Amino acid sequence: MRIVKMLLGVALCGLSSVPCQAALLFSDDFTYATGLSQTSLVNGVNGGWIATTANVDVLNDAIGTSYGIPAFGQGNYIDLGGTVTSGSASAVFSTNSSFIAGVLTDEKVLSFGLAGNNRSVFGPVSDTVLVTFGTYSESFTLARGAAFTQFTRTLLNSVNGILTFTVTTPFTTQVASEQGPLLDNVSLNDQLINTVPEPAFASVALLLSGLVFARRRKFVKAV
Q1: Domains, the chain
Q2: CA 140, CA 168: separation in Å to the nearest integer?
Q3: Which of 19, 70, 87, 156 could make an S-S bridge to 191, C-beta 3.0–4.6 Å?
């Protein structure tokens, strides 16, 4: 009976769309980071980030509430508006490593949390963040008071490159550009969907039928 269960588990794994193997390529919740006006963040496990054009601020509930941002209760996060010394540009926030196809070759799963600027005075009414990763490109528009939402995208494994978050909100003043959208909990996984060819499934089904039949015969003889 144990063998039957094991074979049935293999068959179900192949039939389902749930990944049977996954490898973490990158993950960051910014717990290690501190400070305002950061142009680079070094994560000892996964590499890190580079901010170009401008800088980013590392915030948490204690710092954020002093700027009028509500407490999210989730530790550190990134203000993509940063602290701008001049002009009205926001940072282009990118990983300092390029991710290529891994050992597992089916697909990549990208996940990240975004929130609006959550400032009631100077912040824009809405924020737009352009997320790019290789050939993947998508814009996300967030209302000013939008709380963190975790977005997940499943991509082809051939999608490789640097992961970048760019604020494309058309800021008109320096003060407004410092009230940027917020980023947290970024991860990238390389995963394999276990797909067994149809002949293999037929063989498993045949083997299962044979085992069940043999077990029934054994049961009948015992009676």
Answers
A1: 24-192 (2.60.120.260)
A2: 10
A3: 19
**Mean of pLDDT values over 204-222:** 48
Give how far the C-alpha of residue 7 lies from the chain's centroid of Cα atoms, to the nearest Å: 33
Distance separating alpha carbons of residues 183 and 12, to the nearest angstrom: 37
Average pLDDT over residues 78-96: 79
Look at residue 191 and tell me whether its pLDDT is greater than 60: yes
SS3 state of residue 114:
strand
Q: What is the mean pLDDT of residues 16-32?
A: 77
Give the HSE-up count for residue 157: Cα atoms under 13 Å, Cβ half-sphere: 13
The label of the residue with tokens 């501190």 reads 34
d(CA 92, CA 36): 16
Report the distance separating Cα 113 and Cα 185, nearest Å.
6
Q: Is the pLDDT of residue 170 over 90?
A: no
Structure tokens at 38: 């950061």
Q: Angle between the 198-222 and 2-15 helix axes, to the nearest 10 degrees?
A: 150
30-60 pLDDT, tens digit each = 999 999 989 999 876 667 999 988 889 999 9
Q: Residue 62 half-sphere exposure, CB side, CA atoms within 13 Å?
A: 4
117 contacts: CB under 8 Å, gap ≥ 6: 79, 81, 123, 124, 127, 144, 179, 180, 181, 182
Tokens at 21, concatenated: 């193997």
Look at residue 163 and give its three-state secondary structure: strand
Please, where are the H alpha helices in 16-162?
Answer: 61-66
